[in-house]
Amino acid sequence: MARPNFWSLIAIFTWALLILLLFLPVGSVLTSSLYDRAGNFSLTNYATFISEPRFFTAFINTLVVGAGGLFGALLLGSIMAFCISRFHIAGGRFVSLLAILALVSPPFIGAYSWIVLFGAGGLVRGVLRDMGIAMPPIYGLTGILIVFSLKFYPYVYLLVSGALSNVNRSLEEAAEGLGLTPLQRTMQISFPLVFPALTAGGLLALIHAIADFGTPRLLGRGYSTLATEAYAAYSAEVGSNMSMGTTISVILIAVSMIFVLLQRYMSRRNVYHGNLINKPNKVRLRGWRNVVAHVAVYTIALCGALPVIISVIYSFRRTSGPVFKDGFAFQSYERIIFNLGDVVRNSLSFSGASVLLIVIVGTLIGTLVARRTTISTSLLDGAFMIPFVMPGIVIGIAYIAAFNTGAIVLTGTAAIIVLSIFIRRLPYSVRTTASSLRQISPSMEEAAVSLGYSPFKAFLRVTVPLIVPGIIAGGMLSFVTAINELSSSLVLYVGSTMTMPVRIYLLILDGDFGVAAALATILLAISGLAVYIAFRFLGRNEQALL
Fold first, then answer.
1. pTM of the full predicted structure?
2. CA-based nearest residue to 208, from 273, 165, 252
3. Nearest to 216 by CA among 8, 539, 511, 486
4. Which of 36, 96, 134, 170 is the most buried (most CB within 10 A)?
């Protein structure tokens, strides 16, 4: 009998991994949703979801915040991408840095920062009130859409700016010769050419908006979404029956998958090809046009980075318990050092462990997908879309449903948090590795095999050194998303496994903004360091972040 080769074993391992850490939990969610509270097989939960106004309202609200976040991200990201790629903007690199800061900061920190400025007792509202100007607080749908638009616009900006920089300028020059105005050239020539990038960036914004839990929870004030309803159902039913929470989770997965399939259909249907020659030249604007372009770019960038700025400033404010006092001090950081050091250690250790697994396993699977074109690897590539679109709150509930009883019990342990982060972020490493390898000819690896190396040894000695920069960069970017994870950790943690995002969220709910800001600043500093390391290996290619 022929022994299976190295890559066949990797394929078997990958399918086993997906079955255990993805299909089993998702299957548990689906199965749980098909049983009522009495344990009888039934579609009662789905009937309740359809008939009960609260759930229908949450479903509509989810579509509203998704569409609003998508529109805001497309509008802000497209404006910024067009200005940066087409005009000379002073400090363009600084603007990109601000966009990256907005991207790596968790959405719930953005919600907290806007509450500090425009909440019921917000700083800006207080100043305006003293001036006799009444301004409504930022709570509700308006606040959620503001946070989502400013948080997720970098997805569109980074992808579209890269695509616009590669548009063949001959096409735009020909359109100009035919009498089209600058606006007409932009809408009829430039943006259709970058339509795939627009839809890809918009999809990322949409998926993250409908999956976000922290922002609607903090800013909504009664404005429920599917993510908040799923958590509420889980919290109310933990220890007994989670069937309604799992039902909402199934609906949320279905909504996400529908949008992914719709984006793929639209991007394949509307494709315009160009080439990489005659790239556009940046125009140096004069007069009021130059002022408008700079004001637009810097307003978007600074507002997007505002959560970072606010968190840093308020982390040094003097406090008396949860109340801010005049002056600055290190009181909030002292409280972290003496009382909250365990949550910092938990975040670093959990994220580090998950990223180590992601790098090792993701590199092997990415190589398998890129180098072995079979039906099995094609199915694998498609299967990895599932954790990509699954909201964190759903992953958390799925892991509780799968690993709370039976042969494998992980609830209450650090392992369940590490594994949930691992499976959710693994697709990023797989796709990064696969993309890197598709740019490298397999002939060198084949030559090593012909010289007597085993497939594994050839992979380790020849292929891995060629993609080390991409592996390290992908690992650092996975670390950023892992250490900022809130939704799944909020469901899975116990007292001894609390992480920084969970603690920040709870501090904000308790009104302890000073310590929350200090802990958020530490989290952002760690994230910023990881992004800097990633940039060093990516050659400062911002688009590679995605």
1. 0.80
2. 252
3. 486
4. 96
